[in-house]
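yo

u said u wanted the structure for the complex thing, so here. seqs first:
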Amino acid sequence: MSLSLLPPEFKIIRDDARCIACQVCVRQCANDVHIYDPEDDWIYSDYSRCVGCHRCVTLCPTRAITCVRNPLDFRANANWTHAMITGLHKQAETGGILLSGMGCDQPQRIYFDHLLLNASQVTNPSIDPLREPMELRTHIGRKPDRVQVRCEDGKVKLDTQLAPQLALETPIMFSAMSYGSISYNACLSLARAAKQAGIVYNTGEGGLHPTLYEYGPWTVAQVASGRFGVHPKYLDVAAALEVKIGQGAKPGIGGHLPGEKVSADVSRTRMIPEGTDALSPAPHHDIYSIEDLRQLIYALKEATDYKKPVGVKVAAVHNIAPIASGIARAGADYIAIDGLRGGTGAAPTVIRNNVGIPIELAISAVDQRLRQEGIRNQVSLIAAGSIRNSGDVVKIIALGADAVYIGTGALVALGCHLCQKCYTGKCNWGIATQDPYLTKRLNPNIGSRRLVNLVRAWSLEIKEMLGGMGVNAIESLRGNRDHLRGVGLNEVELKALGIKAAGIG
Amino acid sequence: MKRVYVNEEYCIGCRLCEIHCLVQHSQSKKIIKAYKEEAPQLMPRLVFEEEGPLSFAMPCRHCADAPCLDACITGAMHRDEETEAVLCDEDKCVGCWMCVMACPFGAIQRNLKGTKAASKCDLCYGEEMPACVAHCPNEALTFEER
Amino acid sequence: MRYVIIGNSAAAVGAIEAIRQHDTENPITVISDEPHHAYSRPLVCHLLGELVDEERMHYRPPDFYEQLQVEPMLGVRATAIDTQAKTVSLAGGGTVAYDRLLLAVGGKPVVPPVAGVDLDGVFTFTKWEDAQNIDRYIRDKDAQSALIVGGGLIGMKAVKALMARGLRLTVVELADRILSTSFDHTASKLAESILRRASAEVITGTTVKEIVDKDGHVDHAILQDGQVVDCDLVIFGIGVRPNLDLILPEPEKNTGIEVNRGIVVDERMQTSVEDVYAAGDCVETYDIILEVERPIAIWPHATRQGHVAGCNMAGVEKTYEGGFPMNSEDIAGVATIAVGLTAPEGQVPVEHLEEYEIIKRYDRAAQTYKRLVLHRGRLVGAICVGDIDRAGIYTGLIRDRVDVTPFKEHLLSGSFGLISLPKEYRKHMVVGEGIIV
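structre next:
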């Protein structure tokens, strides 16, 4: 067997003056990086296996460990970067597709960082969210073209029948992450947090574990191309349904759950054999045209008696505007668009990094197109694909979204350090794994608490920003691109986003 | 009375509870000093058990009707009036190990390298919350009244 | 209402504390022929071995009697009980009237009628006074060697004490092996080798026939098999039997209290005479393993029985479920524990032996031994030599009559613990409130 050319990615630095050889790091590393030598009573590290997840760093009671990027330098080369060379070596060794977890990590332009918000000064007074009502409540679903009311006994009554809506206390939802790609404890944390925060979480394409049915009213059930776990009860308990056509991390191809992560419980929930790779096909094999999509949407509506919103999730790709228009006309109640930076448990690295477009551009295009066509009210737009903070939330809503899906953000709240090794099933934080030694590490009591804290913190910040803008309802911000200005963007980009440059007007 | 309860579903087997118990009962109460200078005379007072992915650490139950109190021949084992905790006066203990024999939880250990007396949880006497509970990274140990 | 307790050790203290938990008003009188504050007899060997000082002998703080409002009559011997008039007669005249009486008079050492047993230098080894006498004798006579008659638990305590004093020791035991009531054959042999390695001599299968003196004190002993053992002092540590001096001989004492091998009590620790209770080494109690009534002279049982008696005396219903033997003994520095029915081959009728299963592990290198006795799937006995960590778990399984068949293979493994027990039992133990010995 020839020598591997792959160098360690990270280096462990242990301060021996602080190390008490308590072996917590040895026990906690799922990659067996730390080794205890009983003869010499000390611990040494084989950091070739280190993935940079920081579990040992965090748990070490004396803070004796730190983890740095392996300071191995190649001759400077702007073209053949370290990552390119190592990736190629790996393919030469394995002959396989390079896989990654989480979202695109390449330095593509992040439009959020080039957008700036307005604030009220003089002409339009700001609102203090602590003293005046600030409405963050959002309803996802088809809005009617016109509303007919009548007066009866001095009260106004609604005649128009409204399409089913999904009520959210704040415009933040937990994105689709399947049971299988993440652990049961992670799913339970999301479900509990969704209930407590008054929002929803998405089952992803893994089906729904029966013990989570009680959280049904806060659940969006996804129907993906593999139709994993799709059965009548599944559709029945959920608050909304979502047909998954694609996701931002890997547009055009299907989901992939490696066999290591298909435990007995996962196999039961997904209705597939234990230990087999769960590969979702690229297209739904019953959707080959927009008419087929319409048929599926209405089949789902029929099956659930038209009582719940049925949405469609697509990846943000080049012609996203006409695609979205088609989906709206196909009868979807909402469209979730997942941008280039969207996360995943496993995707081919080359597709994750190179396929799709940023969500900021996608939402802008879709929002503007649907308004042009006069059908913007027929669908809600949900933006996904690396919403990293409340600022991103406000900006994407101003660009046209009704609400956001957070995936990576939610997992980071649970403890994820973005080591990108989700596909190995050895997540040291108990999130992206089915290994019982590891899943215990995510205590759902703590997990749901952290998620609720995150949603609360962002909601407070959104209220502050809205108040600053002189806006008292999130609805007033939707598509209100006049509140945004661009910096460091060229004319084409400004036009695509539909915003002015900062400093002008 | 508040006791330490362990939830074996959330114990991750890190054994930080043992480490902090030991430090709490050391002279210096400083983790590096305790391990580098005071060990091995010190021992943690919880008993940690592990089998496959299942693990938990259990301290003394401070039973309302404690067999160790009956078994102690010196009167070293006594119940503290204020906290109702069962405590061992390690100066009075002669190391007869009757308590080790009587405790159905095996919660009492022999400190053979240090005091030569019985060693067991004292609910971190004087502290608001036992060290093990305060430092469990996954909230597997709780300090509550049931 | 007056409570009177004759005796001042485990059962007495247990009773006092139980009474005071429920009744802080009515007077309690304690009568003890020993002048000392309550102390534990198991500590006598530590006192003689100079391992504890006098202060550490006391079982409770110095102000115990004061704090609990108990009138101690120490150094006063009770000579008779009049169960009709409800009085206790004292040596030197005087009586004490009682409404509720507790007999916590303990046990008396067994001394066979051997020639020379009254010589200066021959001792029993149960009381504080005995330790003081032996200590004085060793100093005065510069004793170098001792013969210990009895290779049981009391004999081992004497060995511990005198070994600490540096005497040369010989142990003589009538049975074919030492510790024959608490250990099995292997454990006994292991104990013997431990003693020999500690330079004590062990002679089995015989006992003392005659003790011979020279110049007024002990010089040597002659055994029944003819061997001669040179020794400067002799300690009889054969055993104790319940102290029935206040009740026997029957017609003369006329108490009406029923006795068998020990004082007979019901599960409330009351004797056959109303308002007279008994607890501790002097009673006969229910052995839950052998399912017979017999004396089990063990400190924790005495404390518990005293507690139960005290509760009932104070008008609070409480029952004692019975117990089984349990001993923790240090043999020349090696810790050992024996609980329950440890050797059915010597202790149950032959026709029942097939109902028992033995599992054991002997680690020669580490010199540790563990033996477990199962009866129809339930743990009934345990011996641990050398490795006694967490042995109490076995005690708990014996007491709760747990069927250990599902985890039998784990019982002797190094990692045996609560984790090996069924989850429901473990949760019940952890969440359940109190544990009764």
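The beta strands of chain B are 3-6, 47-51, 54-58, 77-79, 86-88, 109-110, 118-119, 141-144. Chain B has five helices and eight strands.
cya
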